[in-house]
Specification:
single chain, alpha/beta, FAD/NAD(P)-binding domain, 17 strands, binds flavin-adenine dinucleotide
C-alpha cells in the first residue's frame, strides 16, 4: 500500500477525542478535501468502506478508460502522471489515488463503512463497524454510485437470464452464451454494449441524450475538451441561469454520449431498440410491444443516492441535500462533496472536484478538539 497512514483496522479514535472533521468517503472527493485540511493542520480522519484507496475505480469494468485527459485528471497538488493527452485506464486512476493518499500522508481509515451519522449536542457522531467516532464537522463524500437503480420488473425476468447492473459488470466472461440486452444508453450503456458486442450478439435499448460533436481522442483533448471543461467549470454552475437550467438534465436524463457514437454502435453490429417497458412471459418487453429474446441483461440504468444512514432533516423530496457548494445552512457542521452538480457540471468529476474541495475547506469552521468521555463501543 502506498499510503503511509492508510489503515485497515478499526482501532481509530481510541483517544476519545472529538475530531475537528470526519470525511466519510476516501475517493477522489474525500482525498482532495483531505489535502486541503492537512495543509490547514487540522485534526481529521477519512473513513472509507473499501479495503484499498482507489477501489471504487478498480471495481469498474476492465476496459474502462477515462473520458477526461490526464492533463485534467490530477487532484490538487499532484499532476496525473504520464502523457497529458492520454485517457488513463481505470486502474491507473485507482493507483494514482492511492499514491495521492500516500504522498500527502492522508489519514485514511480503510474497511470502515459508516452506517449512521447524527448530530449530538454541539457535534456529530458516526458509527462504523460497531465503533463510534465524534467530530465537530462531518463531510459526506460517498460518491454518486451508492445504490444501483434497477426497475422493479427485473425480478420477473425468468431465472435463466443472467442479469447484472453496470456496477457489477467487469467483462463479457461474466455472461452466458446467447444474446445480450444492454438497457440504457448513457455513456456506460454505450461503452458496455460495444465491449460485449465483441463476443455476443448485442441489443441496446433506449435513446441517447445526444452525442458530443467530433471524435473523442488526442486531438479532442488538445482542442475541444478544454472548451468542454471551461463550460463545465465556469458556465454550467449554480451561479448562472443556464447552469441552473441544466441541473435536471444532469440529474435525471443523462448526459450526451462522449466517446461512443451511434454509428460506432451500428458498425459493431449493436442493434438499437426502444426502451424496456416491462416483462412478458419472463422476457424483457420493449416499448414497441416486441419481446427481446435474450440470455443476458445488463442494466445500465444509473444510480440513486442513498443517504438513509444520514439522520438529518436536510434532504429535499428527491433525497438530495439542500446545500450550496456543499454547505448546508440548515445543519452547521454538516457538508457534502463530490455529488453530481453539487456546484457545477463537473463537480462529480476529477477536473471539477478539486475546486469544490478548495472552496469547502475554506467553509469548514475550525474547532479546537476537546476530550470527551471514553470512546464507546456501540451495542
Ligand atoms: P467514489 O469514487 O464513488 O468514492 C466514494 C468512496 O466513499 C468510496 O471509496 C466508498 O468506499 C466510500 N463510501 C461510500 N459509502 C460509504 C460509507 N457509508 N462509509 C464509508 N465509506 C463510504 N469522472 C471523470 O473525471 N472522468 C471520467 O472519465 C469519468 N468516467 C467515469 C466512468 C464511470 C463508469 C463512472 C461511474 C464515473 C466516471 N466519472 C468520471 C465520474 C467520477 O469521477 C467517479 O464516479 C468518481 O469515482 C467519483 O469520485 P467520488 O470520490 O465522488 O466517489
Amino acid at each position: 500500500m502506498n499510503s503511509n497512514r492508510a489503515m485497515n483496522s478499526n482501532r481509530e479514535n481510541d483517544s476519545g477525542e472529538v475530531l475537528d472533521t470526519i470525511i466519510v468517503g476516501g475517493g477522489q472527493a474525500g482525498l482532495a478535501l483531505g489535502y486541503f485540511l492537512a495543509r490547514q493542520g487540522r485534526d481529521f480522519a477519512i473513513l472509507d468502506a473499501h479495503q484499498r484507496v482507489g477501489d471504487a475505480w478498480r471495481q469498474r469494468w476492465d476496459s474502462l478508460r477515462l473520458f477526461t485527459p490526464a492533463k485534467y485528471d490530477g487532484l490538487p497538488g499532484l499532476p496525473f502522471p504520464g502523457d497529458r493527452l492520454s485517457f488513463p485506464a481505470k486502474d491507473e486512476v485507482a493507483d494514482y489515488l492511492e499514491a495521492y493518499a500516500g504522498r500527502f500522508n492522508l489519514p485514511v481509515h480503510l474497511g470502515v463503512r459508516v452506517d449512521h451519522l447524527w448530530q449530538e449536542n454541539s457535534h456529530y457522531a458516526v458509527t462504523a463497524n460497531g465503533k463510534r467516532w465524534e467530530s465537530a464537522n462531518v463531510v459526506v463524500a460517498t460518491g454518486g454510485c451508492q445504490s444501483p437503480k434497477i426497475p422493479d420488473f427485473a425480478e420477473r425476468l425468468e431465472p435463466s437470464i443472467v442479469q447484472l447492473h453496470s456496477s457489477r459488470y467487469r467483462n463479457a466472461g461474466q455472461l452466458q452464451p446467447g444474446p445480450v440486452l444492454v438497457v440504457g444508453v448513457g455513456n456506460s450503456g454505450a461503452e458496455i454494449a460495444l465491449d460485449v458486442s465483441r463476443t455476443h450478439s448485442t441489443v441496446l435499448a433506449g435513446t441517447p441524450s445526444g452525442e458530443l460533436p467530433g471524435r473523442h481522442g488526442r486531438a479532442a483533448a488538445r482542442f475541444v475538451l478544454p472548451v468542454v471543461r471551461f463550460l463545465g467549470l465556469h458556465v454550467l454552475t449554480l451561479n448562472t441561469p443556464i447552469g441552473r437550467k441544466a441541473v435536471p438534465q444532469f440529474l435525471g436524463h443523462g448526459t450526451p454520449l462522449i466517446r461512443t457514437k451511434a454509428k460506432d454502435l451500428a458498425a459493431a453490429g449493436v442493434e438499437s431498440v426502444p426502451r424496456v417497458a416491462g416483462v412478458r412471459d419472463g422476457k424483457p418487453l420493449l416499448a414497441d410491444g416486441h419481446v427481446a429474446d435474450v440470455a443476458n441483461v445488463i442494466w445500465c440504468t444509473g444510480f440513486a443516492d442513498d443517504f438513509g444512514w444520514v439522520e438529518s432533516p436536510v434532504f429535499d423530496d428527491a433525497g438530495r441535500p439542500r446545500q450550496y457548494r456543499g454547505v448546508v445552512p440548515q445543519a452547521p457542521g454538516l457538508f457534502f462533496l463530490g455529488q453530481e452538480f453539487l456546484f457545477a457540471a463537473v463537480s462529480a468529476t476529477l477536473p471539477g472536484v478539486g475546486r469544490d474541495a478548495a472552496y469547502l475547506a475554506g467553509q469548514i469552521p475550525l474547532q479546537s478538539t476537546r476530550p470527551v468521555a471514553h470512546h464507546r463501543q456501540e451495542a
